[in-house]
Amino acid sequence: MNSERPDPAEQAEADSKSNVEAEPVTDPNPNRPSGRARADGGRMAAMPGPAPEERPHPEGRRNTEGIRIDPVVEAEHTPRRAVISALVEDEPGVLARVSGLVSRRQFNIESLTVGPTTVDGHSRITMVVEETDPGIDQIEKQMAKLKPVISVGEVSGNAVCTELVLLKVRGEEPDKVHAVTEMYDGRTLDAGPRTITVQLTGDESTIDDALDAFRQFGILEIARTGQTALARGDVPTAPGEKPGTAGEPTKPDQR
Amino acid sequence: MSDTAARSREEEPEEPGDDAPEQDAPQSTDDAAADTGSSDTPVSTGAESVVAALEAAGAKTAFGVQGGAIMPVYDALYSSSIRHVTMAHEQGASHAADAYGVVAGEPGICLATSGPGATNLVTGIADADMDSDAMLALTGQVPTEFVGNDAFQETDTVGVTRPITKHNYFAGDADAVGDVVGEAFELARVGRPGPTLVDLPKDVTLTETDRTPGPAKAPAGTDPDPSADPEAVERAARAIENAERPLCLFGGGVIKAEASDAARTFARTYEIPVTTTMPGIGSFPEDDELALSWAGMHGTGYANMAITHTDCLIAIGTRFDDRLTGGIDTFAPEAEVVHVDIDPAEISKNVYADYPLIGDAGTVIDQLTAALRQVPDADEWRERCQEWKETYPLTYATPEDEPLKPQFVVEAFDEATDADTIVTTGVGQHQMWAAQFWTYTEPRTWVSSHGLGTMGYGLPAAIGARFAADARGEPDRDVICFDGDGSFLMTLQELSVAVREDLNITVAVLNNEYIGMVRQWQDAFFEGRHMASEYNWMPEFDKLAEAFGALGIRVDGYDEVAPAVEEALAYDGPAVIDFHIDPVENVLPMVPSGGANGRFALAEDQL
Q1: ipTM here
Q2: What is the CATH number of the domain that holds B62?
Q3: Would you say the C-alpha torsion B214, B219, B220, B221 has a positive or negative sign?
Q4: Distance, in angstroms, between A21 CA and closest chain B CA?
């Protein structure tokens, strides 16, 4: 069975031949397989039945999300921003599980924050995602499958959302920096001869506007926490979550 | 392999396990242990409570390879009722455990040491994850005080296996370790099954504990409600009743849920034709009049025609893998989809479910049966399905001037064995022929690597399947491993285990001296450039088998097939038949990747 490789030049010639000619090439060594020679020319008998294009085929189609396309009204799913809140058990690796899930399934996330709740052993993860409705649905369902995730859901549209930003700008024009900081209800945390560090909080559009205004001074460094959110009023932030105070379980009745 | 030498040496200058436990005693007590454990029992070690938890969970068999960090657990197995099978390689242990679970219907167990032992399990864990097979992996770990220090044979096993397990645990507490192992065993089994892993630091398994693990229970909220929403069931029932072209699609979930009987009764009662997925093979008898066999890339033409033309697809326990659906745009394009699954995340993940029914396959089938008021009026559709069976039969030619055809070998084994025979496979062309040309009639008789597509799965899986059949009191069932030459080469060292344990298995190597499926794709899509798919030398597998101590037979021609099959099946112990088959035989029909199922190719030039 141990035979030498064919000469490359000959082989190249044989290859080019076998691609254009339909006649079977004689196998030089019948003891070892030579697919090049034999795969050529439709050697294998076709299975019975009409060829693909001769078969009837339905007109219908599905879109990339597997939804049947209604020719009249095709549902268009455009990505939107959603805030997803999850109540999780504060055990080692829980953040790695969530972030690993997000990266593995290619979910588009803008920010992710995590912090303790009033209940020992429970943390809240807040995630801002940019996804289609089916994508958001998948994120919630896949997160719910993680064992440490107690409850997860999208925070309703009118939730309280805010972000904290620290930024350091050049200190050449302290009065102007101060004025802009005041305008956006920020705080000056540190002011030196060369740099000024400012703290801003607010929803996304406030922060965006403020950063635009600060750009004139030259932003040297910036650190952002990402959006965090709570539902308004009596609505639980994560589905089924009970209002919790220290020592009381916030565990929902069902997952 | 360097780790083997290192493991056998075990001079352990850096193994403080024996003197460390006292000051390493765990600080926190796990909730589960506090709830259920009892502490008035004689003092034992963490390792002993691991084994006690496995015994309490009903484990009978475990597959593994020894090594430094897992030694305390092995020492505890010394006096256990659990039968431990030493495999040649940890990958073999993981596949054997996976297949054991498939055949036995309970989680398979595999063990390995830290570092290379654990990483060698990874392929098998990923395989179990993709196929939703219940499996528990126990890995040794360096003592907790060394964790994170890049100690000898340290790997972040929990980190490595996080994305490929249902959940994994770092057991840092000797008092809780037994309960953690019990929980991991249960979690692997409940709901949608999957692999779990417990990483066991050596100091934890050596530490003394007076706690006996409580009864194993799955974590809260992981054992889902078996029933689907009754209103959703009603709506789905109306859709099924009104369908003109209804079609069942049974996936692996039907078998895992032990719902094959219910599914059969359902299809027959409502006279609905049945296709399966590959993991669903065996859920419905392929010799039934309603059976259309399995659909997808190399599925039957008639299954793919039916799935393309149905107006109501009743899909049970399937995740709509791309090898099944082909291009999503052309998958069952006119069908309303009734999707039954225990995992809500599978609903509308790949294919939109018009009628999502979240629940256990058997329970939901019962619910549907109760809700259905009439048999769908589908005489014409059933006739069309029968016509497709006649129009697109699975055939192959056997010209005398050509080498042995692999399909003939598969059929010869099928004819020579009983219906309860277990078939395992590697991955590639041989796997497809074994799926196409064997008529499967019973669940848990088809054991293969579907989602991950792991070459080398077949032989260790046959070993696991053999132990599972024996553990079920079915020693007379035959276990046949169809393997490719490329697949077999990847794990054939496990033949040493089959010989040592005197296992009645038969390996049928369909040897074409190619990575055949790659060769087929190269011919179809890469202008026949056989890069790295063609072997210019292959060992003689029959002689290799003899060197291992197994029966080895070589077969070149048709007339040798039946006698060889008979001899191998009659042989008391493992047998390997090296079938030298037609090297250029291709697997057909074929739906090219992303293509339309209804446009399957029946010949190479149709691709």
Answers
A1: 0.85
A2: 3.40.50.970
A3: negative
A4: 13
